[in-house]
Amino acid sequence: MSDQLEQEIGRKVVKRLVLPCALFTLIGSIDRTNVGFAALQMNADLGLSGTQYGFGAGVLFVGYVLAKYPSVLLYETIGFRRWLAIITFAWGIAACSLAAIGNQVELYILRVLIGFAEGGLSSGLMLYLAHWAPERWRATILALPIMSINVAQVFGAPISGWLLDIENPLGIAGWRFMFLVEALPAVALAFFAWFYFPDRPSQASWLSDSERTWLATNIHAETKAAPDGSREGRWDALKSLDGWLCSLIWFCILASNYGIMFWLPTIVKGMSGLTATQVGFIVALPHAASAIGLLLNARHSDKTGERFMHIAVPAMVGGLGLLAAFLLGSGLPGLAMLVLGGACTGCTVAAFWAIPMKMLSPRAMAMGVVMINMLGSLAGATIPPLMGFLRESTGSFLPPTLLLTGIAAVNVMLCLVTRRRMRGKGEMA
Fold it and tell me: Fewer Cβ neighbours under 10 Å: the N or C end of the chain?
């Protein structure tokens, strides 16, 4: 009966909460990464070099890092529903304002503001869903919002390319029109968040009394918190080797993924000479494969209970696939390797969040999630500019590709070390 109840709760949580949360991640991903398509026109209009563009793409994560902990504190103070509405509205307004920039300084400022507004989104969603995720659904529930990042590229890339190419009704540059159109859904989602989400399981009218009781009794984040509600122990993650190992793995995962997201349109354009719309459809292919692979990888991880090899194996295959794509060039074999490399790189996120939820104590969870996401944000702030510098200084995409392959190899080693550590402590890995 308990297993049946767990399965029913898992299905309800996916339908009622995970999919709506994934929509916020999807729109946020489009607003973060559409600068990669804007670069096809914007760089020439504003006179941006490759290094300046890379800095503009990555500086968003400076705002991410600065906002992580304050955003989670705000979430804990006012509740998930109000918090999500406020940050979504703020990032939507800042993203709309990108349509009016006139130089790189304004680009940098608005990218930082978008990052600051949206900075707590991933941390907040992970903390929120941790209170609703049964063990047998954990990787799936926590991976689905992340999968929407890939879905965003599947639909967002062709739409972004199309918006660049069409004669828009406002008569403005295509990249300006693209920024405006793709930012407006965030403003609408802010109102949806305010009226839709329950702050905690006890407020969910779509759960039965027995289901609410089961969640309160069986969910890790619910059952082991300090009974007096104190915050004692929340900083333990900073003193924990487990917390730092999780943070480094997440850094490598995001370094690879953001490196691909911000530079793939430019790479495909340089290799093929296609129009922006055509580039959009090509760029969508690796992300479509990644979305499918991510979900399958998460479900298999939940079924087997194994987490680390579900990160390490796709990471290494992804890194080697990207390197093979560069070496093979713009033909069909190179495209196939590009799809494989992008798909496997995206799959690495599937099992990750089930690891810190198991390794960190509940009272250290909030700070642990913030710490992990802050280090991941540093990957977004450093890797795209570094790739731009390597591309500009060498005139080739080989050094940036080797950088991503090397990061994948480091990720594999970190996963193996952490897995061995968990097994030494008698925990399933």
Answer: N
Q: How many domains does the chain have?
A: 1
Specify the pLDDT at position 180: 95
What's the rounded Cα separation, in Å, for the pair 365 and 243? 10
DSSP state of 14: I
Q: Which of 61-75, 89-103, 348-362 has the lowest mean pLDDT?
A: 348-362
Residue 79 domain-assigned? yes
Supply 107's token pair.
Answer: 């680009």
Asked whether residue 178 is assigned to any structural domain, the reply reads yes
Instruction: List the domain range (segments joined by +) for residue 250.
Output: 17-202+211-222+234-424
Asked whether the CA dihedral 185, 187, 188, 192 is positive or negative, the reply is positive
> In the numeric block, which tokens belong to residue 354?
């089930």
Name the residue type at position 193: A
Residue 226 has pLDDT above 80, yes or no: no
Q: Answer whether 0.85 is exceeded by the pTM.
A: no
Please state, in angstroms and rounded to a whole number, the distance separating the CA atoms of residues 344 and 406.
Answer: 15
User: 358-388 burial string, b = 16+ CB within 10 Å, else e?
Assistant: bbbbbbbbbbbbbbbbbbbbbbbbbbbbbbb
DSSP character at residue 228? T
- Domain with 253 in it: what CATH number? 1.20.1250.20
- Inter-CA distances, 124 with 67, 68, 120, 154, Å: 12, 9, 6, 25
| Length of the chain as a residue count | 429
Torsion 90-93-94-95 (CA) sign: positive
Give helix 138-165 / helix 35-46 axis angle, nearest 10°. Answer: 30
Taking all residues of the chain, what is their mean pLDDT, rounded to a whole number? 83
For 179, phi then psi, to 5°, come to -55, -45
CA distance 240 to 297: 28
End-to-end CA distance of the chain: 27
With respect to residue 429, please indicate whether it lies within any of the assigned structural domains.
no
Average pLDDT over residues 275-287: 77
Rounded to an integer, the average pLDDT of 279-290 is 79
Tokens of 283: 């760029």
- Within a domain: residue 11? no
